[in-house]
Amino acid sequence: MYPTPQRPDFGAFVWQQAEQLRRFGHAVDVVNILGFRSKLNYLKGAVAVLRKTSSTPYDIVHAHYGLSAFPAWFRLHAPLVITLHGSDLLGSRFERLCSSLICRFADAVIVVSEEMRRRVPGIVIPCGVDLDLFRPYNRNEARARLSWPQDKYLILFPFDPRRHVKRYDLAKAAVDRLKAEGIGAELVTVFGVENREMPWRYSAADAMILCSDREGSPTSIKEALACDLPVVATDVGDVREIMSGVAGTLLCTQEVNEIARNLREALNVPRSGRFERRAAMAKYNQALTVEKILGVYKKVLPTLKAKRRRLGYGI
Questions:
Q1: In angstroms, rounded to a whole number, what is the distance separating the alpha carbons of residues 58 and 298?
Q2: DSSP assignment of 91-154, as one string?
Q3: Residue 305 and residue 204: Cα distance in Å, rounded?
Q4: ∠ at Cα 206 (176, 250), nearest 5°?
Q5: Which residues contact 37 (CB under 8 A, 6 or more apart)?
Q6: CA quadruple 60, 65, 71, 75: dihedral, nearest 10
Q7: Rounded CA gap, 202 and 142, in Å?
Q8: pTM above 0.85, yes or no
Q9: Residue 291: beta bridge partners?
Q10: What digits encode the pLDDT tens for the residues 167-199?
């Protein structure tokens, strides 16, 4: 997953990590496999990785998602670091098997939640959030900018409704329940939007909803809270840990009545302007996340040095 002009939101959290590494002064080249278009692209990706690593002495090859690690396995000489993000380890049996298999050949494995670490041994480093980008704007100003109605409660669903795992059906049913109770609420679906535009969407809403069947470490919740937006979410991935002790966050099951009840409560959470929710996201600052990733790189670099010595390369 990596953003493209056609899908600017696709894997934005991977792009953020690459950009933060560049800000820290590291050189980063990207091979975007585009596996969602064709499985043949995984073979093309392997060729691209082989070509790049044969012409450039990279220090690290870092693959994001289990299936992407198979093309990355064809790298030359550099240690392989794999980050598993969720669906690769919690999704279909095929993906789980592939991810578990390729991890055996990695020099280091990063997982984004404790739930995932129980399935595959790895270092837990949740995806971070860019706190310079994700910050709250005035709600009325944000709505005017987006031409969103000023006279309704707006519930943000920042996912593609066609992705069944995100359970748009539950979000819609819960908001419909609020409408039936006479609450002027509207479910707003947002996807395919550039990363830099998302803070305006979070700021314009009254609450965010996540009803997923499963998650790794959902970046959307961290982004929403960084914009000081109340969140209602199912207890998946590390959601409980992210929202623990954070005012204006409510954990629920996938039962529609309970989701609706929690949404009703979230809509009454005052937007105080003190930004308690944003402050709670400091521990997920993207810069801190990338510092932890750099710590993993440093641990596997001796592997690279040993390989180069055996092959007669300079260090």
A1: 14
A2: S-HHHHHHHHHHHTT-SEEEESSHHHHTTS--EE----B-TTTS----HHHHHHHHT--SSSEE
A3: 51
A4: 80
A5: none
A6: 10
A7: 9
A8: yes
A9: none
A10: 999 999 999 999 999 999 999 999 999 999 999
50: number of CA atoms within 13 Å, CB side?
A: 9
pLDDT digits over 208-240, tens only?
999 999 998 999 999 999 999 999 999 999 999
Structure tokens at 238: 């590390």
24-40 in b/e form (b: 16+ CB < 10 A) is eeeeeeebbbbbeeeee
How many beta carbons lie within 10 A of that of residue 157, not counting itself? Answer: 23
Which spans in the chain are helix H? 12-23, 40-55, 69-72, 87-90, 93-103, 114-117, 139-146, 168-180, 198-204, 219-226, 239-243, 256-267, 276-280, 286-311
CA angle 186, 188, 194 (to 5 degrees): 160
Output the six-digit token pair for 82. Answer: 């794999």
**Is 253 in contact with 234 (CB distance < 8 Å)?**
yes
